[in-house]
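Worked example

This section walks through a single chain of length 216. The input is the sequence exactly as stored; nothing has been trimmed or padded.
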Amino acid sequence: MHSYATDAKDRETILLWIATLAVVATLLLNYLLKVLNIEVPWWLDAPSVMGFYGLFYQLFDDVVWALKFEPIRFSNIPNLRGTWVGVIRSSYQNGTETRGVILYIRQTWSKISVEIETETSRSKSTMAAVYTQDSSEPGLKYEYTNEPSARSPETMQPHRGIVNLVLSPDRKTLKGNYFTSRSRQTYGEMVFQRVSEQHLERSDALQKASSFIENI
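Given that input, the structure is written out below as tokens.
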């Protein structure tokens, strides 16, 4: 996984809140140790401010940021993680359509990984940006590298490209376009529907999205 940019304002404030909680937790722990008359052995350090900061940061980065108790949200960054299934319509060879495309997104508050898998190739993100609902185009933008599989046509070569996917208001669909580098010079449209927030095997994902794929 790699870091990603975002327009979410909480990136500017969350770290301050985590630092404050770490200081409070350290003071509270030291107070409890004194009240309970507990002496920590010299070889066992009581959690310090940095220790609590690391613990709280990891907890927020992995879990808390994605929790929501309407209307309360801990972060404005859209939670995109999971398995998405869709269709790619490309300008390649005067127009081709590929169905049953799998989009895998792994995401924390600070890092993300985007992979697209077809029967003939797999692409992985190298950099990305996630935009909130306050943006004119909420969703995901990323750059990727693509590696053809052994079953791909000989004309298909490794290449780079850029994808722009807009997130629907109900956060169930990603739709947008892509274009590739000079070595390939293709472009196209893509649309995906999330079938699970977990990582599913290809066969399971296709089964869950069968009606969606048939109707788009």
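What to look for: The first helix runs from residue 14 to 35.
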